[in-house]
Every structure is written in C-alpha cells, then in structure tokens.
Automatic annotation (TrEMBL):
It comes from Adineta steineri. This is Ig-like domain-containing protein. Pfam families: Ig_3 (PF13927), V-set (PF07686). Residues 29-128, 131-243 form the Ig-like domain. The chain crosses the membrane at residues 246-263. InterPro entries: Ig-like_dom, Ig-like_dom_sf, Ig-like_fold, Ig_sub, Ig_V-set, Zig-8. It comes from the Eukaryota. One of its GO terms (cellular component) is neuron projection membrane. Residues 1-18 form the signal peptide.
Length: 264
C-alpha cells in the first residue's frame, strides 16, 4: 500500500488538464467543501487528495499530499478534513469530500482528487479566496411593521491580508438601483483597519416604497450579498387576499355541485 501511494504522488506531478478544472471561490475565514466522485473503480481503490499552492513553496514542492482515503498524509494543517465514504454499491462510485476550515490566502491553488488506478479520471478544483462580507442585521429576510420608522443596514468587507481596501468600492443597491444620498436615506463610511471598511445605509421615514431587495456590492461584483425587506402589513394583506380568493373558489364549487345535484 505504501508503494502504491508513493507512485500515485509521483504520477500526478505532471500537467493538469485545464478542460477538467472546476473553478471555485470561497470567502476569507469561511468553510468550503470539495466533492469528488470517481466511477469505474474496484471497491479497494485508494482515493488521494493533493494540493498545488498558487504561491510557490520555499522548498519548491509542486504537489503536497493531504489524504489517502481517510488517512491523513500531512500534519502541517489540521484545518483540512476528509469525509471518505468509500465505494457506494448503488451509484458504483467512490466518494470523498475535502473540507477546508477558516479559509486563508495560502489555501489558494489547485486541489486534485485521484485514484491509484491507471488511466482513471481526476477531479480538479481551482480555489480562489475572496474578501469576506457581512451584512447586519442579517443577510436574508427582514420583516418590518408599520410602526417602525427607521433601519440601519451595515455592510462590512474585509480584504485579503496583503490588500488595502478601497471603501469607495462598497456600494448599496435597492432593487438593482444604486443608492446615493436621497431624501429619506444617507450613507456613512466607517473605517476599522487598512484592509476592512464598513458602509452603513441609514433609512428614515420608512414607507412601503422602501421594501424590496437591498444588495451590497463590492468591487464591481467580486462579492455580492442581499437582504430582503418586507412589511408585515403587506404580508398580512397578501395572506388575507389569498384566503378570500380560496374561500370564493370553494363557495363557487359548492354552488356548482348543488346545481348539478338538483338537475340530476
């Protein structure tokens, strides 16, 4: 088994087929999983994960071994975890999932998942780490009631460690239209560090016109996150309207059934 693993690592140090690469991006400090499925292998095949850093290493190593099946091949990085399911009788495939915790810039590069079987296909992933974005109160759906008069939406972006952030690249959009200083809203820039900035959108005198999709966009779409604002009253009105329509439809059906019964 040891001889097989050594031969595998030597074999894959060649050129990666660019037509078989999946390009994946992950936020700084986030968790990302790479799913590898390989078919037409014997049940006892060995699945190995290796990594080629984008930045060259000091010792000049091109490929760094990570895992062989569920066995860790390096002790340098405990953030890399493999969930190895092995051979699945139903799908007739081997499944291995590599998870990377707390992504950082040094994780950028090409990850390869390959078996020790001759001429088997490899799964290649080109990973890029992008800046971290957080929206507060939260990215998702925010429900407002008719008594609420104002709301603050903050968008914080943290650039990669070696990059200095340009706060002017952070922009807020409402229903796909860029927000500037308007009658009932204004923007506030706050700075924390050289590589982090926050843009706060303060909306006062709220009305139903302020409902909809709010989008924070950094660096012309490098990273985008949304928050949806809906009014509780609007939700209730929609629910009442739907209930009324359903009741009318039900009464109409009952009336038709009575007419049919009388005619018969």
């Amino acid at each position: 088994m040891i001889i097989q693993l050594i031969l595998l690592i030597i074999t894959i140090t060649g050129i990666v087929d660019s037509s078989n690469i999946r390009f994946i991006s992950g936020e700084l400090d986030s968790i990302i999983s790479l799913r590898c499925e390989i078919a037409q292998l014997p049940p006892n095949a060995v699945i190995t994960w290796v990594y080629r850093p984008r930045a060259p290493t000091i010792d000049g190593i091109k490929w760094l071994p990570l895992y062989a099946n569920a066995r860790r091949l390096t002790q340098n990085n405990q953030r890399f975890i493999v969930d190895y399911s092995g051979y699945n009788l139903q799908t007739e495939k081997h499944l291995s999932i590599l998870t990377i915790n707390k992504l950082n810039v040094s994780d950028e590069g090409i990850y390869m998942c390959k078996s020790n079987q001759y001429q088997s296909s490899a799964n290649n992933f080109n990973l890029t780490v992008i800046p971290l974005m957080k929206i507060l109160p939260n990215d998702g759906i925010i429900e407002l009631n008719h008594l609420q008069r104002s709301i603050n939406l903050s968008c914080t972006v943290r650039e990669l460690d070696q990059n200095t952030i340009d706060p002017l690249k952070i922009k807020w959009y409402h229903n796909k239209h860029e927000i500037s200083h308007q009658r009932n809203s204004h923007l506030i820039n706050k700075y924390s560090h050289n590589n982090q900035a926050t843009l706060i959108l303060y909306i006062h005198n709220l009305s139903t016109n302020d409902s909809g999709l709010f989008t924070c966009n950094y660096d012309n779409g490098l990273i985008i996150k949304d928050v949806q604002i809906v009014y509780t009253s609007a939700v209730l009105e929609y629910s009442r309207s739907m209930s009324s329509k359903l009741m009318s439809t039900w009464l109409l059906l009952v009336f038709i059934m009575i007419i049919i019964f009388i005619i018969r």
